[in-house]
């Protein structure tokens, strides 16, 4: 009991714990509701100090669900022949941006599977066109593993940020979640390349992914400490019926919230979304994530007719407050817990300057 309180204090002060301490903390929090409440309050306080009660919004455009990869957990893996595949044309993507801009979005997130039918050059053109049309907006890409030259090309086209979850920082665990073609070392190299090019870089992992141990979560935290990503996205694993992991249990909302709070104490300035997956496994997941220290939400801007096909996991929410059209409802929900949606770009800012 006493130890957990001390560990939270220590984490707040040093922004890191040893692996053993992280394990003690993570396992202890399951039983000790008082310590869990303290952690949540400290993390919320830290987020408030840095961002006030502002919550940034990002317009998520799921531009393709074709993927060359076969991650065992993911509903759009290439071996899922049940998936109804789509990809958006440049015009359709521009239309999403137009709608998003009018709704107040100043960050567009282009997320998709590793769909090689978009050549490097085609992506360059899409990114440049968005950049020219919306000079005041941030462009975030989430399109998987590519060569450094490709990342550089897209950066030169005007992209500012890149999201690539490392998924797990234990190479052995990585091999249990992915087929042999996918290499942990390559993924980490991609993250390093992205950082060195100058992208604001996001990484992250799933909570409760199959075979995950608390020690592996501790490794994920250590990895985050070493990489110092500007953005950190985490969410519970949720099984998808048409994947090899269909019978595996989902990750816990509670544990996800503990990890959001720990990450906030480790990285006070980081942009941490309260993710769709968290909103999917818990009716108030989005709000609880914000209260645990997250400061970003990413409503869905994809065209309505394709939204239901971008199913990474089952029962993904796609018609409620997470939809960009329901921004008023989202504002209301956030204001009920004392937060306000802001429409500026919300770039990562280092240092003691707060964003308030
Ligand atoms: N459950 C939860 N999250 C998932 N992702 C992929 N499949 C699932 C799933 N079944 C996450 C991965 C990926 C991100 C885009 O979505 O972490 O990086």
What brief labels describe this structure?
about 350 residues; six-stranded parallel sheet; three-stranded parallel sheet; globular; TIM Barrel; binds 5'-deoxyadenosine; single chain; 2 domains; alpha/beta
Write the layout of secondary structure elements.
Blueprint: H1 2-14, H2 19-31, H3 33-51, E1 54-57, E2 59-64, H4 90-103, E3 107-112, H5 120-133, E4 138-142, H6 148-157, E5 161-163, H7 171-177, H8 184-197, E6 200-207, H9 214-227, E7 231-236, H10 253-266, H11 276-281, H12 285-291, E8 296-297, H13 304-307, H14 327-336, E9 340-342
Parallel strand pairs: 1-8, 1-9, 2-3, 3-4, 4-5, 5-6, 6-7
Helix pairs in contact: 1-2, 1-3, 2-9, 3-10, 4-5, 5-6, 6-8
Bound molecules: 5'-deoxyadenosine.
Can you describe this structure in just a few lines?
It contains 14 helices and nine strands. The chain is of the alpha/beta class and 356 residues long. It has two domains: 1-42, no CATH class; 52-344, TIM Barrel (Alpha-Beta Barrel).
Protein described:
The chain is an alpha/beta fold and 356 residues long. It has helices at residues 2-14, 19-31, 33-51, 90-103, 120-133, 148-157, 171-177, 184-197, 214-227, 253-266, 276-281, 285-291, 304-307, 327-336, and strands spanning 54-57, 59-64, 107-112, 138-142, 161-163, 200-207, 231-236, 296-297, 340-342. The strands form 2 sheets. The chain has a 6-stranded parallel beta sheet. Strands 8-1-9 form a 3-stranded parallel beta sheet, covered by helices on one side. The longest helix is centred in the first third of the chain and has 19 residues, at 33-51. The radius of gyration is 19 Å and the shape is globular. 47% of the residues are buried. The site of 5'-deoxyadenosine (5AD) has 12 residues, from loops.
């Amino acid at each position: 009991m006493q130890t957990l309180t001390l560990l939270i204090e220590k984490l707040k002060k040093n922004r890191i714990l040893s692996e053993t301490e992280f394990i003690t903390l993570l396992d202890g929090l399951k039983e000790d509701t008082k310590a869990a409440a303290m952690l949540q309050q400290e993390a919320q306080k830290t987020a408030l100090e840095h961002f006030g009660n502002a919550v940034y919004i990002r317009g998520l455009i799921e531009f393709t669900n074709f993927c060359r990869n076969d991650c065992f957990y993911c509903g759009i893996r290439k071996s899922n022949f049940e998936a109804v595949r789509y990809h958006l044309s440049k015009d359709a993507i521009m239309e999403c941006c137009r709608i998003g801009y009018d709704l107040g979005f100043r960050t567009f997130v282009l997320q998709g599977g590793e769909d090689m039918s978009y050549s490097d050059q085609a992506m360059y053109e899409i990114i440049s066109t968005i950049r020219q049309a919306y000079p005041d907006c941030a462009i975030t890409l989430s399109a998987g593993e590519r060569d450094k030259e490709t990342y550089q090309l897209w950066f030169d086209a005007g992209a500012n940020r890149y999201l690539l979850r490392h998924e797990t920082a234990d190479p052995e665990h990585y091999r249990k979640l992915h087929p042999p073609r996918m290499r942990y070392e390559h993924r980490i190299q991609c993250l390093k390349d992205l950082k060195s090019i100058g992208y604001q870089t996001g990484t992250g992992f799933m909570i409760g992914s199959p075979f995950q141990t608390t020690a592996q979560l501790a490794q994920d935290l250590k990895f985050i400490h070493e990489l110092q990503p500007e953005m950190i996205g985490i969410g519970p694993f949720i099984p998808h019926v048409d994947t090899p992991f269909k019978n595996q249990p989902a990750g816990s909302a509670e544990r996800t919230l503990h990890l959001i709070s720990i990450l906030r104490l480790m990285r006070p300035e980081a942009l941490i979304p309260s993710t769709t997956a968290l909103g999917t496994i818990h009716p108030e997941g989005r709000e609880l994530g914000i209260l645990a220290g997250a400061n970003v939400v990413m409503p869905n801007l994809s065209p309505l007719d394709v939204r239901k096909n971008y199913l990474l996991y089952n029962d993904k929410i796609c018609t409620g407050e997470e939809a960009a059209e329901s921004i008023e409802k989202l504002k209301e929900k956030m204001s009920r817990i004392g937060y306000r949606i802001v429409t500026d770009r919300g770039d990562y800012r280092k240092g003691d300057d707060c964003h308030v």
